[in-house]
Design brief:
The strands form five sheets. Strands 10-9-8-11-12-13-18-22-21 form a nine-stranded mixed beta sheet, with helices on both faces. It has 24 helices and 22 strands. 41% of the residues are buried. It is elongated.
Amino acid sequence: MKSFRDLAKWYFSRGALPYWSILLLDCLFVVLGGVSAYIIHHEVPDTWEAFEPLVWTICAGLVCFLIGFRMFHTYSGVIRFSSFTDLLRVGSAVVTAIVLLFLIQGLLAPRSLLTQLSVADIVVWGLLVIAVMWTVRVMVKTVYEETLHQQATEPVFILGVRAGGVALAKSIRSSQDSQFRIAGFVTDDPSMEHKLLMGVGVYPFDDSLLDTMRERKTATLVVSPLMMNTLRNNEALVDSLVAGGIRILVVPKAREWDGRSDLRVSDLHPVNVEDLLPREKIEVDMKAASELLRGHTVMITGAAGSIGSEMVRQIAGYGPAHLVLVDQAETPMHDIRLMMRNLWPDIKAETVVADIADEKVMERLFERHRPEYVFHAAAYKHVPMMEDNPYEAIVNNVYGTRVIADLSVRYGTRKFVMVSTDKAVNPTNVMGASKRICEIYVQSLDKAIKDGKVKGVTQFVTTRFGNVLGSNGSVIPIFQEQIRKGGPVTVTHRDIIRFFMLIPEACRLVIEAGTMGNGGEIYVFDMGKPVRIADLAKRMILLSGARDVEIKYTGLRDGEKLYEEVLNDEEITVPTFHPKIKIARVREYDYANVASDITAMVRLCDTGDDMAIVAAMKAMVPEFHSQHSKYEVLDSKD
């Protein structure tokens, strides 16, 4: 004979009951409840003539209950996943039925075949029905969790005991595709330790956690979004958990779960190195920026790149009337076109495959669309590539910027926002120097407009920040691919450090700083604490679960320095409207001289003489001193 557990497993393995069977079962409870309520206060009828009115009364009551069940859809849920909301619907349906019964009794019973029920009879009837329906649902849910679900799911601990942790636990428990069951909570609040929450224990987030999880046969820690800073601030503890075989799951930032909407288990992902970088979340109030951009024409250059594509997504969400998207990369631009068509079909979007240095093509675009705001993110950014190809750094980065900036002035663009880099500060490579020249040009042009030397209304704003996590060709995707192949992971130097920021955060700051600026500013973003690249590589190897991947130090690349600066030594900053954004005070340049120098530099590109091109760059940017580069000989001649 089969045991109760075997029968339960057989039942739950058959899937959810059809809605009609649940409704039929509830109707049976109504009939039995009505009969029982009558018997409690009255004698059992012994003849059909005496019993018939009760039958009609039960049928009338059943109709009332069916109306309540239909109004609140008590039969549409899966019983094994019943929640408080489901029980509330049952209660509301029963109350509705009782009210209808009172009305029927008052209007029809004295003049019909119905048995006259007292107030006590009707109330007891409703209480019996609600008690049985609640009991059956709770019992089915409990049996399911203690039998098939208990064996088929993985026990997890949840880091967080406040609103975020409890909401996360409830969401996991109520999820129909849940692979987990809650085995305990973890907290860094001493006042909550060793208590019970939702029927399970609360344990401290300290060095004893690994042993605790092993004792509870738990190998997964799910982190509440509100506890991510706690996770980041305990690097040694996190490393010990990962090394001990504990899997850490987090809610994706891109989804930005609010703790109220349903959370699917599939939304959780293993913690990655970006989640653990020591940094504070940057909050940006985009209301003012959104009001400025809504209903206007916006051009974004470099729209298919890591920064540009994210800016497309964010700006599209503000409801511009028209987007003009420019990039040289055909396939990524096709992806942008499809994205706009699928997500924002009401926004007119022009996707243009073109070179920003092609002045004729760019002028046709400006003449046709006359963008009111230009976000200039197009640039060659890879240091070693530009070190070998200074011609392209000048033609694309410098001359391309000049083309877009000049056309912005000519066609009355309100604001031109240029995306720069921390490598433009005390540059040690061609790429950084080219971006510094771009900064100099747009700043001098802005000043010339304000001084009345150039006719125009355009305000030029520059934004400067460091590396963005996960951008195309950045260190994290490279390390991931190297780890996937079994190593080695290549790091240029043991002591090299970099500043990092998330792409969405960087773009929000660019948009806010750009739209809020008055022109001529270089906005510098607070990048938080610098990260040692060797430590980053070690953490990624550890999180991957690999144990035999080695780190190989290859030496600094051409033009690379150990650390990046966000400000020149001679620069100072002043605070702005946002604590994470400051304005760099830099030396002013005369526009006529800058324009003349750039024209001469572009002509030098026709010679193909790398040394002459870089020498001209150094003359324009005196703080440009090459490192680990063939161009160091030019510095020695100073």
